[in-house]
Write a structure and sequence with these properties.
Layout (H helix, E strand, L loop, with lengths): L16 E5 L3 E7 L5 E3 L3 E2 L10 E4 L7 E2 L2 E2 L3 H9 L2 H29 L1
Antiparallel strand pairs: 1-2, 1-5, 2-3, 2-4, 6-7
């Protein structure tokens, strides 16, 4: 069982996080047992000419953390995400995908009716 605030990447199983900031820089993230979040010094990618979104990623594989269709970009959302079990995250992701599929079907139906 995962401890409270422990990260485990759903894609690769890695347990280290990085925080990606605008101007393509990353900071390693350390989550303490009490929930305090600490960042290392930013490392700027000098080869990047494009900006990126502020977001938490798996340090091992680069997987972008998201929940219910939204990128996790702040500590509040990260903490809430980490407090869920993997089963809860999977159930919520399935619910989100069903909602998106239903919306797509409604839009297709409306387009068909209007044409």
């Amino acid at each position: 069982m995962l401890e409270l605030y422990e990260f485990n990447c759903p894609k690769c199983g890695g347990n280290k996080l990085t925080y990606e900031k605008w101007v393509q820089s990353t900071e390693d993230v350390i989550i303490h047992e009490n929930g305090h979040i600490e960042y290392s010094e930013a490392i700027i990618n000098p080869d990047s000419e494009l900006g990126s979104c502020d977001a938490f990623r798996c340090r091992s594989c680069g997987h972008l953390l998201s929940y219910f269709g939204s990128i996790i970009s702040n500590e509040h959302d990260l903490t809430a995400y980490l407090m869920l079990t993997q089963e809860e995250r999977d159930d919520d992701e399935q619910t989100y995908r069903q909602m998106v599929q239903e919306q797509i079907e409604r839009e297709i139906s409306c387009d068909f009716i209007s044409n």
